[in-house]
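Give me the fold.
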Amino acid sequence: MSAVYLDCNATTPIDPEVEREFLVYVREEFGNAGSRTHEYGNRAKSAVQRARDQLAAVVKAQREDVIFTSGATESNNLAILGLRAHAEKNGRRHIIATAIEHKAVLEPLEFLAEHGFEITLLKPRADGAVSADQVAAALRSDTILVSVMHVNNETGIIQPLADIAQALVKHEAFFHVDAAQGFGKRIPDLQNARIDLISVSGHKLYAPKGIGALILRRRGYDRPPLTPLFFGGGQERGLRPGTQPVALIVAFGKAAEIAVRDHAKRQQRCQQIKEQALAAFSQLGAVITGDQNIAVPNTLNVAIPGLDSEAVMVALKDVVAISNGSACTSASYTPSHVLTAMDLPEDQIKGALRLSWCHLTPDAPWKEVAKAVHSLI
């Protein structure tokens, strides 16, 4: 019997309905959406447009607002670096973000900082969230962009997007949200018309890896003035050239449609698993990271006093598959920049474990988890 997979924030399993749709466009409807001289191409183009509609519906955007990419990392880079020329032209080189963003946001910001931009990184409160007041206080006349993630990938803490959007109502700064962990899971949050750019990823929503999107919401008739990061072909309104991966796009669209349809049922199942996890770890004296009143039901970050996370993961490897942070940095063994920014005690940071699950997750053997951990105490 294999370990129960509890690392869905790294990547989710593929939903069976999504997989069936995906395989149709791998095996049968394999046409290039750019081929306009035959029905194979026309059917592929129609499928891509349908997927745009499905993604746009989640956030109440328009079909034309959806730009397909390879994933949220590319979307974040396009949203941030794509504004560089406009920012330089208009003398607005100040950007506000948070210290708990994913590296796919922080590293593009570091690149801009090396090229004359000034970056303000807001530290979260002890509960794991930043506040709209912090954003408002950091705003300047030359602020071009505010980038705040939707749900933190390590702690599961939800950031106050509606409050931040309200703080930006009278400011021209573009508002970007890395929604990799929240898209299709907390639906109303991303429907706020003041959010200009939304980065999303298929493999966080039960679709295959390799597909994502950047949603560019218009202000009146104007979209955010992005320039492409690479060139050739003119696809995706010239912002993301290259042959469209139709099967991946169709799968992502289907995943978005199902996420809306099954939202309540999925949330209920995730909350059920979370209550089981909280009960199991409370018996172990675990310290919970962040305020669970503002956390998603599919993530839990915990530390067991006196135990290093690596030792716990080794002890649990045959029981549950978990992590101690972002999959993108799991090979580095450096302290979590998210937990460090929260000013948590050093032993809590070293002992932090991230458990994340989804509606497809079976019940975990929590008694075996407790037994394995007790063997280390």
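The mean pLDDT is 95.
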